[in-house]
Design brief:
The complex is a heterodimer of chains A (456) and B (327).
Chain A (H helix, E strand, L loop, with lengths): L2 H20 L1 H27 L17 E6 L8 H4 L8 E3 L6 H10 L5 E9 L3 E8 L7 H22 L4 H8 L7 E3 L5 E3 L6 H34 L2 H6 L4 H37 L8 H14 L3 H27 L7 H28 L4 H9 L1 H13 L5 H31 L7 H13 L1
Chain B lengths: L2 E10 L2 E11 L3 E7 L5 H9 L6 E6 L2 E2 L7 E4 L11 H11 L4 H14 L3 H4 L19 H13 L5 E5 L7 H16 L3 E5 L3 H7 L2 E6 L2 E7 H8 L1 E8 L4 H7 L2 E6 L2 E5 L3 H13 L4 E8 L2 H10 L2 H18 L1
Parallel strand pairs in B: 3-8, 3-9, 6-7, 7-8
Antiparallel strand pairs in B: 1-2, 1-4, 4-5, 9-10, 11-13, 11-14, 12-13
The chains are: A alpha/beta (456), B alpha/beta (327).
């Protein structure tokens, strides 16, 4: 790039960037994304609070809406339900053991009863299956699902404690017995080293990866569409001829792509900053409740992902994301250059969008498969290394540690080489396409032009 | 400084769009490229500007490759182009910056050309009390005013070379005169100008040297006066109060057109015209009009493009009749 080209590139970049960020659509889009990033977590916490997901640890003594529980215990154990009533939540709940009605009658009556928030619990024991607890409630009752879920867990814990008490287990033994047993399966390699056998991703990881995929897809799509629209506008309005007298086509292309890159970087930084501020805000807002709330559990899950991030991973992910953005922007530029009128751009975008969505679907399939099993190593590596699918998912795979830093680095090299090759091929036809006026160029026309120009 | 275009050729697929175009500008002035639609004028201009690759040939400035990124060139494209939704002031500043102008210099020139072309109100809209100044975008301008902004974009860098592709097409008479005066100013500034146009009187007004292209081929090329001389003075317009058709047929002169405004004849040479004048005098006819003139550029153009002298002359005579009526 000589001095004149650099001047052209700089001026195109500045003009495109300034006009880009001045656009109302950009401002609105940025505002919506930042607002979403900032408000989603606090709103989830508020919703969680409204559903009564938190009941302890915050000092509040909430009352359960359950009025009476009819207990049918078919085991021989002595269960002291008053102990459950010691919990503030169930303080006012009556546990009725000596009900004169049979379990079936009580259940049937309960189903018709709409005036009271009552439950019927039947507990059985068989040697094969262990304890079976059935909780029956009326469809018409006001007891919320979240409250029932909480009661289910509390009852299960309480019953386990009572069982152990019946077996004369001391307090120390009880503590010992109540500890979890964590089992980890390791696989050994030929050289004698052990590696942790990977499991499928957790639900939290799944949602985070899907959300990440969607955000990256949106940013790449937006950037490539902007480049394509800008080129199609210049072709359609014939400004391109004037621009080309002072600027080389590739300097023009580089200027446009760089402006879109900077716009996307600004968007990304703004969104992540909003999200980070939102997390701080949530922590301040609910500092005391962190361990109890399910919503906050999600915050912790996000935070736990960040724990695996290292500088090298972050660097690979950022550079990879930018390379992916450049790759799809070049393809977007060719799409824009393939039309002569702005009206035709929508048609040209059909093929481009199909290609883009197909790549994202492949990545989405991988994430869904990862949720079910970890046995997709080859497919995972393929998606990460293949640049057209990797552009959307590799940064997330690197950051979450689903692929090694080495694989990430290899994938980065592959996408950089791809970008260079695509740029060289695009450069061969871009000039001719820019000045072409007529029917929309289809993929086969572009390929023919590419072959001709590159071979000649 | 000499500017040379040598043997330019361009093919689109199997179609030869430009075939061996050569011309030279040894000194500042206006060179005209003429041709019908699709003759290859705009393609030639794009090749000269380097925005379209040449199949063959070269464009030289003082013997070296002509590069628009190194030489200050202004270009007014045939297909006018502005960003429809962007403010015109921003666009002009952008175009100026691409030509290497600082913002201050660009603003000065925008002010000058804004006043000269009478578009200041759009470039510097007045601030209304209590309201934010709303910049004018290109799609808010009329076609003529958009054309003025484009001419400003071409002239903003005060280019040494000016390439004007159909500069006056679509303009009303007032703006045509305004554009003409600007082009005259640029000629006076000793600039090298290449112009293409369909309007022959415009070319005759500005250009000394021309090339006529027909389907990519150069059919006429050279100095306009010499070209005209080479065709000779063969157009004769005669009007008498009496009927003179018998004299014309006696002398064997070809009638091209006979209208109430007069008879248009095609003579073989000036002597044949003199013979007719002599006979009219001898016969005591009242001569209202007797005009012998060389072919107009319009006629030369039509003849070279169609190869049909009579048709071209007939059209030309109609023009002459119109001129007569208007007089």
């Amino acid at each position: 790039m000589n001095k004149g080209d650099f001047r052209g590139f700089k001026q195109v970049f500045l003009f495109e960037f300034m006009t880009g960020i001045k656009k109302t659509s950009f401002k609105v889009f940025l505002l919506i994304l930042c607002a979403m990033a900032f408000f989603v977590s606090p709103i989830l916490i508020l919703i969680g609070n409204m559903h009564g997901d938190k009941d302890s640890g915050n000092g509040k003594k909430e009352k359960s809406s359950i009025e009476s529980v009819y207990v049918y215990d078919e085991t021989d154990l002595l269960i002291d339900y008053d102990l459950l009533r010691k919990k503030a939540l169930y303080k006012e709940v009556s546990f009725i053991k000596d009900n004169k009605m049979s379990y079936e009658d009580a259940s049937a009556k309960l189903k018709e009863d709409s005036n009271h928030n009552n439950l019927v619990i039947k507990t059985e024991y068989d040697k094969k299956n262990g304890f079976d607890v059935t909780i029956v409630t009326s469809k018409k009752s006001d007891i919320k699902d979240s409250e029932l879920t909480k009661f289910q867990k509390d009852y299960s814990d309480f019953y386990r404690a009572e069982v152990l008490k019946n077996l004369d287990v001391s307090k120390n033994d009880y503590e010992y017995l109540s500890k979890d047993i964590n089992v980890e399966v390791m696989t050994s390699s030929k050289n004698g080293t052990f590696a942790k056998e990977s499991k499928g991703i957790s639900m939290d990881d799944y949602f985070i990866m899907i959300a990440g995929l969607m955000v990256v897809f949106m940013l790449i799509n937006m950037s490539a569409s902007n480049v394509a629209t800008s080129i199609a506008t210049e072709k359609s309005s014939r400004v391109i001829e004037f621009l080309l007298t002072g600027t080389r086509p590739l300097a023009l292309l580089l200027g446009k792509i760089s402006a879109r890159l900077l716009e996307t970087l600004i968007t990304t930084v703004a969104v992540y900053s909003s999200y980070y501020l939102s997390q701080i805000f949530c922590l301040i807002l609910e500092a005391d409740n962190l361990p109890a709330s399910g919503t906050q559990g999600e915050i912790m899950a996000v935070a736990s992902i960040w724990e695996t991030i290292t500088i090298s991973k972050l660097l690979i992910a950022v550079v990879y994301f930018l390379a992916g953005l450049i790759l799809f922007s070049i393809i977007g530029a060719l799409t824009g250059a393939s039309v002569s009128k702005l009206d035709e751009l929508q048609d040209a975008f059909k093929t481009y969008s199909f290609f883009l969505v197909a790549c994202v679907y492949v990545d989405m399939f991988l994430i869904i498969m990862m949720l079910r099993s970890a046995d997709f190593g080859f497919f995972q590596n393929f998606c990460a290394i293949c640049p057209i699918t990797g552009a959307f998912i590799t940064p997330a795979l690197v950051l979450t540690g689903k692929i090694s830093t080495m694989t990430g680095f290899f994938a980065l090299m592959v996408i950089i080489i791809t970008v260079v090759v695509v740029y060289i091929f695009a450069a061969a036809v871009y000039e001719s396409m820019l000045l072409y006026q007529g029917k929309r160029l289809k993929i086969k026309d572009v390929v023919t032009l590419m072959k001709k120009q590159v071979v000649e | 400084m000499s500017f040379e275009v040598k043997h330019l050729q361009k093919k689109f697929g199997d179609k030869q769009v430009v075939e061996d175009l050569s011309f030279e500008l040894k000194e500042p002035g206006v060179y005209a490229l003429l041709g019908t639609n699709g003759a290859g004028k705009s393609t030639s201009i794009r090749m000269i500007l380097g925005i379209l690759a040449k199949d063959h040939g070269e464009v030289l400035l003082d013997g070296e490759k002509f590069d628009t990124r190194k030489v200050n060139v202004g270009y007014l494209a045939e297909e006018r182009g502005l960003y429809p939704k962007y403010p015109i002031m921003d666009q002009l500043l952008y175009f100026a910056s691409l030509k290497g102008l600082s913002t201050d210099v660009a603003m000065e020139r925008i002010k000058y050309w804004g006043e000269r072309l009478k578009v200041t109100e759009y470039l510097f809209p007045e601030r209304k009390k209590g309201k934010k100044v709303k910049k004018v975008t290109a799609d808010q301008l009329s076609k003529g005013n958009q054309q003025k902004i484009q001419l400003m974009a071409a002239l903003i860098s005060d280019p040494q070379f000016l390439i004007l592709d159909e500069p006056l097409s679509g303009l009303d008479p007032v703006n045509t005169e305004l554009f003409k005066s600007v082009i005259h100013e640029e000629i006076d500034k000793k600039k090298y100008i290449i112009m293409s146009s369909h309007q022959m009187p415009v070319i005759e007004e500005f250009c000394e040297d021309i090339t006529i292209l027909n389907r990519g081929k150069v059919v006429v090329c050279g100095n306009l006066n010499e070209i005209k001389k080479s065709y000779g003075r063969v157009n004769l317009f005669v009007k008498c109060d009496e009927d003179i058709n018998n004299i014309i047929s006696e002398l064997g002169i070809k009638v091209v057109n006979d209208t109430p405004a007069g008879i248009q004849l095609k003579v073989r040479d000036e002597q044949e015209a003199k013979n007719l004048m002599k006979r009219l005098n001898e016969e005591n006819k009242t001569i209202v009009r007797f005009e012998l003139r060389e072919l107009s550029l319009h006629e030369i153009f039509l003849e070279s493009v169609n190869g049909n002298v009579e048709d071209s002359q007939k059209l030309s005579s109609e023009d002459m009749m119109e001129e007569k009526v208007s007089e």
